[in-house]
Amino acid sequence: MMYGNSTDGYTIAYIFRLPDPCARGYRRTYALIALGGRDSWRVTAAFGLVERHFEEIARRTVLAAERTLRLATELSPQIKLPTEHKDAPADRENSKASTNKGAKDALGASVAGEKISLRNITPVSSFLSARKVDPDGVPRAATTKDATRARGLVEITADDRFFVKLHSDFAGLLKLLLLSSSQHKHHSPYNTCNSYGPGCRGRA
Which processes are annotated in GO (biological process) (predicted)? Predict the structure, then answer.
């Protein structure tokens, strides 16, 4: 996809997901990004070329991650393979209903004869899940192995030279963009030169 404006500049992004049993939902989301400058004509002209190369990079990365996960599953059967989540509206409604029902049930729960009220419990955000105590000072039961462990692309793909290859792919893409730009230079109504900067960003 392409987004931006003539003031802040335009960006071409290609989003893809990799299987990762250590990530929430067993998937980790990444994006290949190219900064195209403020010239919308040049960025639009380069969009097709950038998208094709990003799609190929993402395809190879996904295949490497899936191959690594299959090998890890064969060695450690307890590792679960990620499944596709369609996240249909009905599924979201069922999830909400289940959550609301659980909350209502918790209001009437009792421990050692004492009634528990959710109104007296301090909400704890997910980013605090790895802490040993919550904001009220109460020790948390979560163990270290239960905390989400971030993994890098080198570990996910089991390729120590992943970023070397990625840099080579980006350098090749820049070369093609420069050649394409020089070929269309005389046909463009613009004389300014934009620098394209491909990169990779990821999040769990």
Answer: positive regulation of TORC1 signaling
Do the Cβ atoms of 33 and 13 come closer than 8 Å? Answer: yes
Say how many C-beta atoms besides its own lie within 10 A of residue 100's C-beta.
Answer: 10
CA distances, 193 to each of 6, 57, 185 (Å): 14, 26, 10
Q: 171: burial class by Cβ within 10 Å (0-12, 13-18, 19+)?
A: exposed
How far CA 5 is from CA of 39, 41, 189, 190, in Å, comes to 9, 12, 19, 17
Query: Would you say the pTM of this structure is higher than 0.70?
Result: no
CA dihedral 107, 108, 111, 117 (to 10 degrees): 30
- pLDDT (tens digit, 9 = 90+) per residue, 79-112? 666 654 444 444 445 445 554 554 444 444 444 4
C-alpha dist (Å) from residue 40 to 10, 147, 153, 187: 7, 44, 32, 15
Residue ranges of domains in the chain: 2-79+152-203
Sign of CA dihedral 73, 77, 78, 81: positive
